[in-house]
Design goal:
The protein has about 350 residues and is an alpha/beta fold. It is globular.
């Protein structure tokens, strides 16, 4: 995907969205040949389940699939979905949903499709995308001056191609005004649950998540960056050696001068090469790696928060709390309560966890 995005030279059409009032919760999903099936069906199942759980007085979602390739559209996995022609997507829209897919290069070159998305957005109350669908929103000029996300593997390509968009590779979804962009594939489900919560309240969103047998309902600040860190292992041997040493010594202070010495480089040269190879400063990388290790410990152990902080190299628990909150938008205790699944002693007792001291 990154290769074809970098090779495209099309320019955004410069459309914008206006405030729209709707009388029904009409969800219009734009599908195209080669789109990813779960990008489409994941959010759809959330809305459909919410409909089934709504009280009779609730305002249900009406889901329409539209496509230039109607009536039958083959997704990237071979699943065929039935869609209506694009022209049936006229009128006011509550939520316009745009999926990603392995054929996104063809979709981006389809000027009629991009233009239609821009026009449809102008009559939508809000616009959402899953994974690479954010590229189509950006291609239509809809994300200029806004913050957005996409799959972490393609965030650099998106930032390069659309410099007027502030691309944030870390959150699983980003809500900026009427636009909601989500990261890779399954995060479209998290995003759809957030939309249900905004429309009908947290209770229905949680009931929907439970009915779909989802372990948890993740908020948008949940980070993609453990995957990003895996992708950031540099090819340049001295930098890779430094990264591996960092991972082995997270419990210790890690001054840049010491890390540079391990790479056998001057501090100035090391900082320059590290940023070029990894895409972040050494200090930022160390902090994010400490947080990634802390997440792992919070998810899989019963260690006290102060012990987690110490094992990850934070000299003070207060510093750990600030760094953790800045990165994930949660306190360590909140994160553990949401994401801890199992410990060495077995399944976590949620009641015990809720009442345990944060220290």
């Amino acid at each position: 995907m990154a290769e074809y995005v970098n090779n495209l030279s099309l320019q955004p059409v410069g459309l914008s969205i206006q405030a729209v009032t709707v009388s029904e919760r009409r969800v219009v999903v734009v599908v195209y040949a080669g789109a990813m099936a779960l990008d489409i069906t994941g959010p759809m199942e959330v809305f459909d389940t919410a409909n089934r759980l709504l009280a009779p007085s609730g305002l249900p979602y009406r889901i329409d699939l539209v496509s230039a390739d109607a009536p039958l559209v083959r997704t990237s996995s071979g699943v065929v979905v039935e869609a209506l022609p694009l022209e049936t997507g006229q009128g006011a829209i509550d939520t316009l949903l745009v999926p990603g897919g392995w054929s996104l290069d063809n979709a981006l070159r389809d000027r009629a499709l991009v233009s239609w998305i821009g026009r449809a957005a102008a009559r939508s109350r809000r616009v959402a995308s899953v994974c690479g669908g954010s590229f189509l929103l950006a291609e239509a000029g809809l994300l200029n001056g806004r913050r957005a996300t996409t799959h972490w593997a393609y965030s650099a390509a998106m930032a390069c191609r659309y410099p007027e968009v502030t691309v944030d590779a870390e959150p699983i979804f980003v809500w900026d005004g009427p636009f909601v962009t989500s990261a890779g594939v399954s995060t479209g489900i998290d995003m759809a649950l957030a939309l249900v919560e905004a429309d009908h309240g947290a209770a229905l969103a949680l009931e929907t998540a439970r009915f779909l047998v989802l372990f948890l309902k993740r908020h948008g600040g949940q980070s993609q960056f453990s995957a990003v860190l895996d992708a950031q292992l540099a090819d340049h041997p001295p930098i890779r050696t430094a990264q591996e040493w960092i991972l082995e010594n997270l419990h210790n202070p890690l001054p840049v001068a010491e890390i540079a010495r391990r790479a056998n480089m001057s501090v100035r040269n090391f900082a320059r090469v590290f940023r070029r190879e990894v895409g972040t400063t050494p200090g930022q990388y160390v902090e994010r790696t400490r947080i990634a290790r802390a997440r792992e410990l919070l998810e899989t152990t019963d260690l006290a928060i102060s012990q987690v902080a110490s094992r990850c190299g934070f000299t003070a628990t207060e510093t750990f709390f600030r760094s953790f909150g800045r990165t994930l938008g949660l306190t360590p205790k909140e994160y553990r309560h949401r994401f801890q699944v199992i410990s060495p002693s077995g399944l976590i007792d949620r009641h015990h966890e809720t009442n345990r001291s944060p220290a």
